[in-house]
Design goal:
With about 375 residues, this protein is mainly α. The protein is built from 18 helices and no strands. The structure holds fe (ii) ion (FE2) (2 copies).
């Protein structure tokens, strides 16, 4: 069995020095190259609909295209200070921020100006990571078009490439026109994206991107969509979520068939990869880059965050980010194979409680734009009545 050291480069998941040692290597680079070790596969089996669930997704995707330039109200004026007033990071309740305010701690002398700046930087950082993650999805899905052996999956993945281009475009436009500058890619997220691209096995792209990265993104977009009252951002997120739900479903429906036939040893490699991805994504939420920009001692803040989260990460907001990933892993058999190896790991991370929540293969249609339009129509009918 692989050790934490081999999977993560550290024996203790919460090893402060090891987490801090992962930093962006070259923040000034304009192009980042990763070796893609996979074969591009042609298939001569053109039988459309051989995999009915994927064919259904493809047909839905063709009808669900939207235009980021013309379908969103870009002329909406955005006051970013008002937007961040509804951010989930509240300096008056967040346990880490409260601890950091104690005398002698880094944020002790901060006034309203600094707290407000922190919220703005955090929002900018979050939106920037969404944008970079979307580019990761764009590249990964283009890779899936090449590497997956089934024609129905190639067709569907091609629609996802278009979706992801649109997502990168709208997050970049929001950052450029409504906010103030970008953050570079977080080092932990970057490491994960590199690992996903570099893996030679076609299903690992799906597992890393569609199940883990997009599963977390779907939950994160859902939160921000719920919390924000900024109409442009709310609509942008609603549109993106309707696509993301389909993307995660694509991962679940494709891998369900493939994983049913893998040996225990092969499944263990997938379980370990899912765990590694979960840890990298947890590490990214320590948002090292924001502390750096705020001129606060990064080591002290990361230490406080890790201590306050506890071994199980008891921050309910962070736990909920895994609410899509865990049931999807269960559906794929990843929780239970090999004596429940991943179940134990997710238990240690404090996220196993979501295992019986709806999986995205079953619920994706409820997040479609057509479903949203039906809800809006029902709501306005109720008002009229
Ligand atoms: Fe996306
Ligand atoms: Fe996506």
């Amino acid at each position: 069995m692989t050790t934490n050291e081999e999977m993560l480069g550290r024996a203790d998941v919460n090893d402060l020095e090891a987490i801090l040692s992962i930093t962006a290597k070259d923040v000034d680079e304009m192009v980042h190259a990763v070796k893609d070790n996979a074969d591009a596969l042609f298939t001569w089996n053109y039988e459309k609909g051989e995999r009915p669930a994927l064919n259904k997704l493809y047909e839905k995707a063709k009808n669900a295209q939207w235009n980021g330039e013309t379908d969103l109200p870009w002329d909406t004026p955005v006051d970013i200070e008002k937007v961040v007033a509804n951010a989930p990071t509240d300096p008056d309740t967040d346990p880490v921020l409260l601890a950091a305010r104690r005398p002698g701690q880094p944020l002790h002398s901060w006034g309203d100006k600094e707290w407000n700046q922190l919220l703005i930087e955090s929002q900018n950082w979050t939106m920037s990571q969404f944008m970079h993650g979307e580019q990761g999805a764009l590249v990964c899905t283009a890779k899936i078009v090449e590497t997956v052996p089934w024609i129905d999956a190639k067709y569907y993945a091609a629609t996802q490439v278009m979706d992801e281009a649109r997502h990168v475009e709208v997050f970049a436009k929001y950052l450029d026109t409504k906010m103030n500058g970008h953050y570079p890619l977080n080092a932990h997220l970057g490491m994960l994206l590199d690992d996903i691209i570099a893996d030679s096995r076609w299903d690992m792209t799906y597992l890393g991107m569609q199940i883990m990265v997009e599963g977390l993104a779907l939950a994160a977009f859902g939160f921000m969509h719920q919390l924000t009252e900024e109409p442009l951002l709310k609509q942008l997120l609603r549109y993106v979520m309707s696509d993301e739900a389909r993307h995660v479903a694509f991962g679940v429906l494709s891998l369900k068939e493939y994983y049913a036939e893998l040996s225990d040893a092969e499944m263990l490699e997938r379980q370990e990869f899912a765990f590694e991805a979960a840890v990298r994504m947890r590490d990214r939420f320590l948002q090292q880059e924001v502390w750096e920009r705020m001129g606060v001692d990064v080591r002290t803040m990361i230490k406080l965050q890790l201590e306050n989260q506890g071994d199980k990460n008891e921050d309910p907001f962070q736990q909920l980010l895994f609410s899509k990933i865990v049931p999807n892993c269960k559906k794929l058999g990843l929780l239970d194979r090999n004596g429940g190896w991943l179940r134990t790991k997710f238990g240690e991370m404090g996220v196993i409680q979501f295992e019986d929540w709806a999986d995205t293969g079953a619920e994706y249609d409820t997040m479609s734009l057509a479903a949203a339009a039906r809800e809006d129509a029902a709501a306005s009918n109720a008002v009229v009545a």
